[in-house]
Amino acid sequence: MMKSIISTDKAPSAIGPYSQAVKVNNTVYLSGQIPLVAETMTVVEGGFAEQAEQVFKNLVAVCEAAGGSINDMVKVNIFLTDLSNFATVNDIMSRYFSQPYPARAAIQVSKLPKDVEIEIDGVMELPSVN
After folding, report:
1. What distance, in Å, lies between the first and last C-alpha atoms of the chain?
2. Please, what sign has the CA dihedral across residues 42, 109, 53, 120?
3. What is the rounded CA–CA span in Å between residue 99 and residue 92?
4. What is the pTM of this model?
5. Which of 7, 27, 26 lies closest to 18, judged by CA?
6. CB-based contacts of 90: which residues, under 8 Å, 6+ apart?
C-alpha cells in the first residue's frame, strides 16, 4: 500500500488533527472543506452561495494538489445546515463538475465548524499511470 499525505497552501490548512487529504494508491480521501479563505483562514464574506462557491474552490485546490482534478471525484458528501439551499448547491456544483457526475449525498446537519452553512468531503480516484 502506497500512502501519502496531500497538503496545499491553496486550500485552508486543517483546523484539527487531520490532513487535507490522504492518498492510498490511486484513491484520494478528501477531508471536509468549509468556506474558509486559505490566505486568511476566515470564513468567506457573503451568504450561502458565496460559501458554497468557496468550498468548491477549496476542493479544486486539494484535488489539484493530489495530482487530479475535481472531475476525478467519484463520491461527494455535502453537509448543509439548511436543505432549502439544495437547489443553489446543484447550480454551483454543475459549474464545477462535468458529466458523468460523481455519486453524491446531501445531508442536513444541525451545526458545522465555525458556524458555516456548508461542508463537503469526498473520494477521488486518480487515473492509473502505466
Report:
1. 17
2. positive
3. 14
4. 0.95
5. 7
6. none
The count of other CB atoms within 10 Å of the CB of residue 92 is 19
CA–CA distance from 41 to each of 63, 73, 127 (Å)? 19, 25, 32
Which residues, listed in sequence order, are joined to residue 29 by a DSSP beta bridge?
22, 123
90's grid cell? 446543484
Question: How is residue 113 written as a grid cell?
Answer: 465548524
> Coil, strand or helix: which one is 105?
strand
Residue reference for cell 443553489 = 88
Cβ neighbours around 80 below 10 Å, total: 21
Q: What is the pLDDT of residues 15-31, one digit of tens each?
A: 899 999 999 999 999 99
